[in-house]
Amino acid sequence: MRTQLHIEKKQEMLSLITDVTFSNVPCWYDASRRDLKMDLILPKNRTVHSACPTIVWICGGAYRVVNRSVWLPEMMRFARAGYVVASIEYRTSNEAIFPAQLIDVKSAVRFLRAHAKEYCVDPGKIFALGESAGGTMASLLGVTGNQKELDQGDHLDQTSAVQGVVDYYGVVDLSDASAERDRMSAAVNQSNDVPYFSFEEFLGVGYGKAEAEKASAIRYISEKTPPFMILHGTKDTVVPMAQSEKLHDVMQKKGIPCEFLVIEDAAHGDDLFYQDEVSDSVLQFLNSISEEKE
Predict the structure, then answer these.
(1) pTM of whole model > 0.90?
(2) In angstroms, how far apart are the furthest CA atoms of the chain?
(3) Domains of the chain and CATH, by start
(4) More confident residue, 46 or 183
(5) For residue 195, what are the CA distances in angstroms to 17, 65, 137, 171?
């Protein structure tokens, strides 16, 4: 049976480019080096394609593990909405202590700007999104655009500043180091997701208030901070809701546009965060900033 279809083109074809090296960093006790990679979802036909707003997606994993590819299926929602998506990796806490992780994500942003034409990236519309430990990194990326000492590596002629942040249940205030250690020790019996020693691995053995403040996004907020969206679940037993509430409060006091979505009955990393209603809200937030930048 022959069937002839007349089809209207409603969406463009997308491509997945994997294993793109964006930085080369020390490893194995600084005796060797390794490449940091990103995976990109972007338009297949890029020769004459216009620049697209771009999402830098940062995976979580208690600062101890990261998998840049595992979230790509969820990122298709944003790619189909017209965003280039770059899902990146960074050094984990067993490789290097903070601020190595922030240095890495900043390198990814600068790489994208330096290769904007090649990857259809709009350098004026780059957004940081991350979940859990990735939310920590996305938030820090958003508030440290003017911290030049954290820009290290290649493409230093490019800025690592982003135009907006979506923080999915990230830790944003580690300034009370001893209290955070005690909380994590108590929480280890409730959840195996974040071992009690994760923060010590992340900040360094015997870390104190100075090290904790340096890794606390809440300490860098200024009038130059871009708009934020914060997402947190009411049943999160891994990262306290108070983390996101404090971030929202400081943003409001500083006059920074900030949306706070509280997801009822959502645990840490819950599927509820990745339903259409939430993704629609995130897209609306990103689109509103993109439109302002035109």
Answers:
(1) yes
(2) 74
(3) 14-172+217-292 (3.40.50.1820)
(4) 46
(5) 34, 12, 19, 14
